């Protein structure tokens, strides 16, 4: 499996590229500008431990072509819909893993959900039924992802309207060393994406002695 990360030069995309490379998953990092992507991956590859696969830097369009069937979408919310419109035809037939959260422009402790209900649902509405959109990895700290000395301190909730696509994404997420859970259809993204704003509020609060906290699903001990 080769994975493309669109908007991969941002903090979340870089962190995911590193974690996937360490897990042995061939990863292509896409950007609007190929030169920027190449600069970023040069730094990322230098930071990877021995045995990791090499991350490749290309344009978003080239990344989609090189990915067999799975593309991670990691752009800022402000660019989400427009870029999907531009890439719609190229993404047809693939699985799009949308990790974008519609954080409010003036207050990242809040979300401004689109008319569809969530970024995941907006992506599915734009791309149509020929592309399976799966929401995942919304609540993982970019700082944690980029620090390979840290374990990822959270679980991942995965949602989308196609069950087989959800299962495939769950298996991919497990490769980076975290538990992933089937959270149901795309409408679940309304709750999952909104959790990110709550985590940001907690993590920047002076009332707690930590930052970069995540969420975990705790089974009963009995």
Q: What class, by secondary structure content?
A: alpha/beta
**How many helices?**
8
Question: What is the percentage of strand-forming residues?
Answer: 15-25%
Shape: globular
How do the helices and strands line up, and which of them pair or pack?
Blueprint: E1 3-6, H1 11-22, E2 27-31, H2 34-47, E3 56-59, H3 60-66, E4 70-73, H4 77-91, E5 95-98, E6 103-104, E7 107-111, H5 119-127, E8 132-135, H6 142-146, E9 156-160, H7 163-174, E10 180-182, H8 189-203
Parallel strand pairs: 1-2, 1-4, 2-3, 4-5, 5-8, 9-10
Antiparallel strand pairs: 6-7, 8-9
Helix pairs in contact: 4-5
Summarize the structure.
Helix content is 40%, strand content 18%. The protein is of the alpha/beta class and 222 residues long. The strands form two sheets. It has an eight-stranded mixed sheet with strand order 3-2-1-4-5-8-9-10, sandwiched between helices. Strands 6-7 form a two-stranded antiparallel sheet.
Keywords:
8-stranded mixed beta sheet, 222 residues, two-stranded antiparallel sheet, alpha/beta, 8 helices
Please describe what this structure looks like:
With 222 residues, this protein is an alpha/beta fold. Helices cover 40% and strands 18% of the residues. Strands 3-2-1-4-5-8-9-10 form an 8-stranded mixed sheet, sandwiched between helices. A two-stranded antiparallel ribbon has the order 6-7. A hairpin with a 2-residue loop joins strand 6 and strand 7. The longest helix has 15 residues. The radius of gyration is 16 Å and the shape is globular.
């Amino acid at each position: 499996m080769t994975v493309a990360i669109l908007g991969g030069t941002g903090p979340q995309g870089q962190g995911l590229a590193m974690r996937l490379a360490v897990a042995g998953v061939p990863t292509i990092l896409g950007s609007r500008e190929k030169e920027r992507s190449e600069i970023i991956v040069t730094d990322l590859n230098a930071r990877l431990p021995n045995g990791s696969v090499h991350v490749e830097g290309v344009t978003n369009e080239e990344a989609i072509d090189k990915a067999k069937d799975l593309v991670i979408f990691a752009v800022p919310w402000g660019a989400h819909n427009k870029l999907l419109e531009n890439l719609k035809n190229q993404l047809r037939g693939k699985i799009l893993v949308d990790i974008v959260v519609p954080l409010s422009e003036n207050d990242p402790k809040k979300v401004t959900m689109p008319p569809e209900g969530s970024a995941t649902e907006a992506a599915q509405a734009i791309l149509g039924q020929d592309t399976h959109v799966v929401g995942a990895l919304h609540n993982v700290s970019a700082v944690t992802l980029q620090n390979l000395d840290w374990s990822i301190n959270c679980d991942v909730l995965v949602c989308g309207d196609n069950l087989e696509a959800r299962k495939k994404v769950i298996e991919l997420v497990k490769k980076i060393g975290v538990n992933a859970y089937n959270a149901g259809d795309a409408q679940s993204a309304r709750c999952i994406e909104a959790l990110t704003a709550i985590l940001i509020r907690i993590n920047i609060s002076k009332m707690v002695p930590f930052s970069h906290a995540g969420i975990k699903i705790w089974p009963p001990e009995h």
